[in-house]
Design a protein that fits this description.
Blueprint (H helix, E strand, L loop, with lengths): L3 H19 L27 E5 L3 E6 L5 E6 L16 E7 L2 E7 L18 E10 L2 E9 L8 E8 L16 E3 L5 E3 L5
Parallel strand pairs: 3-4
Antiparallel strand pairs: 1-2, 2-3, 4-5, 5-6, 6-7, 7-8, 9-10
Length: 193
């Protein structure tokens, strides 16, 4: 899936994560460093809810984890990649294809967390197909293309269950109890010095 020059460092990172887990430690991640997950990772932070608010001109996606906000502009043309300043969420435009919301996202900075920690370039292109497959289940089929890093596109599917009475809670990362040591391990501060 990854081109060889990207596969080796990715596999080394995965091996280091597995070794740290076996020791009962956690390697630093964007989350442990109070950096937004960004796209596409923000859509798959499994244990935290996602709120989707729809209006005629925009679909707004808010995740409880880190209070990340993503805007999908409806029925607008996608900009040229060179006209989109790279960011964590990029520029998303959407349109309806029958009952399926198709979302096109470009302009994700390469330092934003990639799918399962995979590297990506700023040429990454994400296409999502949101489909209400049952009254309370929303499916998001995600396809990632990146001509610089990937041998071929990566496609995976996420699912969300509607929770009509749930109220989103504040999730602010102030990182006042964790730090990353010189080996990249997340540690807890026991006392403030």
């Amino acid at each position: 899936m990854l081109k060889p020059e990207y596969a080796k460092p990715y596999e080394a990172r995965r091996a280091a994560e597995a070794a740290a887990t076996a020791r009962g430690e956690q390697l630093a991640t964007s989350g442990s460093q109070c950096v937004p997950y960004g796209m596409p990772t923000m859509m798959s932070v499994a244990i935290y809810p996602v709120e989707i608010v729809q209006s005629p001109k925009q679909v707004t996606i808010v995740t409880e984890a880190f209070s990340e906000v993503r805007r999908v502009y409806m029925d607008r043309p996608q900009a040229k990649l060179e006209d989109v300043p790279p960011g964590y969420y990029g520029r998303s435009v959407g349109h309806w294809d029958g009952n399926i919301l198709v979302v096109d996202t470009i302009g994700i900075k390469s330092s934003a967390s990639g799918y399962r920690g995979m590297p990506h370039s700023e040429q990454m292109h994400i296409t999502e197909r949101f489909n209400l497959i049952q009254p309370d289940y929303l499916q998001d089929q995600v396809t990632i293309e990146d001509p610089v890093v990937l041998e071929k596109p990566v496609t995976y599917t996420l699912a969300y269950k509607r929770m009509p009475d749930y109220e989103m809670v504040e999730f602010v990362c102030d990182n006042n109890r964790e730090y990353v040591d010189e080996k990249g391990i997340v540690r807890m501060k026991v006392k403030d010095h």
